[in-house]
Write a structure and sequence with these properties.
By secondary structure, this protein is of the alpha/beta class. It contains 14 helices and 9 strands. The strands form 2 sheets. A 5-stranded parallel β-sheet has the order 2-1-3-4-5, with helices on both faces. Strands 7-6-8-9 form a 4-stranded parallel β-sheet, with helices on both faces.
Length: 357
């Protein structure tokens, strides 16, 4: 039996100190915001018609979260593409930038991202790169494309805060969102408070992340999110997969009410094995409030355990950063409770090895 309140648990199962990287997310976000101010972008980018974030895994998640951040303020679409090719990619339109392609790869070596980057070069698309270095940074520099460096230690998924803030800074500079230094300070403070509440030194009886992780072990997690938390549902899902070494699925509101609800009553043992996690923005629209209420009621009616997690008080960035921290710690504790080093990803490494062969 793994004791989450015993410090030797972390020494034994987390030798790389992933919990320290989780705790440092607020500081990384602050650092990234400061660093992003040093990157110059052409004024004409304010006239872009669409922002396309090209990436995979933890690098692409930042695009989903940024899209949520911009959902209430931008009239221009933000599209996240996880593939080898970007559908509908085009070059500049005369003197106007047209689409803006942002290639994101923590390692700079992600095959799919490099393929989309090369497609953008060939099409003459306006581009930027967000990367930790490697081939992507080198090719972007050679092509005179602005590069924003992810200066964060550890695995790609642990750098999501850094990625998000670099991307948010770019979107702010080109007018798709509006973020002030005060907005960032408040968000970082809220994330730091959540890291304290969910950290390893806070005992299980008062630690929301340890408590939820214990309840989710051995169960199928269904993560639902809407509004600014549409991408957050996918973040929680992928973290439960990678850190927690557990099954999880993510869906968005209001879409789930148009299909998945029909499955709630199917299968005799399903309700007993699943827990639904509803991630709700603090200031959801009246339309979304009704849909969260209906979804929770239908889950209750089907006998499916469900929990509602509402964003903290504050603006969209404040809610996003604190919810990232909570979900990250939940997934981290799940990995420990499964008796596995949460930072290692042997199955992902194996798939990459087989693909390289």
């Amino acid at each position: 039996m793994v004791d989450l309140d015993a410090l030797n648990t972390y020494e034994k199962l987390d030798p790389s100190g992933l919990h320290r990287r989780l705790q440092s997310l607020p500081a990384m976000c602050s650092q990234a915001w400061t660093e992003a101010k040093r990157t110059e972008f052409p004024d004409e980018w304010r006239h872009c018609t669409e922002v396309i974030v090209a990436g995979m895994g933890g690098s692409a998640i930042a695009g989903d979260l940024a899209a949520g951040l911009a959902s209430g303020s931008s009239g221009k679409p933000i599209r996240v593409v996880r593939d080898f090719n970007v559908p509908g990619l085009s070059g500049k339109r005369g003197s106007q930038p047209g689409q803006l392609l942002v290639a994101c790869s923590f390692s700079g070596e992600t095959e799919e991202t490099l393929s989309m980057f090369d497609q953008g070069i060939a099409a003459g698309t306006v581009m930027a790169a967000i990367t930790g270095g490697g081939t992507l940074a080198r090719r972007a520099a050679q092509a005179g494309i602005p590069v924003m460096i992810v200066n964060a230690p550890g695995e790609p998924r642990s750098a999501v805060g850094y990625n998000l803030m670099l991307l948010a800074a770019l979107l702010d500079r080109i007018g798709l969102i509006s973020l002030s230094d005060q907005d960032v300070t408040e968000a970082v403070e809220a994330a730091a408070d959540m890291a304290l509440r969910a950290g390893i030194e806070t005992p299980s009886d008062t630690n929301p992340a340890k408590s939820l992780a214990g309840d989710l072990i051995g169960r199928l997690a269904l993560v639902y999110g809407g509004g600014i938390f549409t991408g957050m549902a996918l973040r929680w899902k992928s973290q439960i997969n990678e850190n927690g070494k557990s099954w999880a699925f993510a869906e968005s509101l209001p879409e789930v009410l148009h299909n998945s609800v029909e499955s709630f009553s199917g299968g005799s043992d399903f309700p007993q094995r699943a827990t639904a996690l509803l991630l709700k923005p603090n200031r959801a629209t009246p339309e979304m409030e009704r849909r969260y209420k209906v979804l929770s009621g239908m889950l209750d009616q089907a006998g499916i355990e469900n929990r509602m997690f509402t964003g903290v008080q504050g603006g969209p960035l404040t809610q996003l950063l604190s919810m990232i921290v909570l979900g990250d710690y939940v997934s981290y504790y799940m990995g420990l409770l499964n008796g596995i080093n949460p930072s290692e990803t042997p199955s992902i490494d194996l798939s990459k090895q087989q693909l390289s062969e």
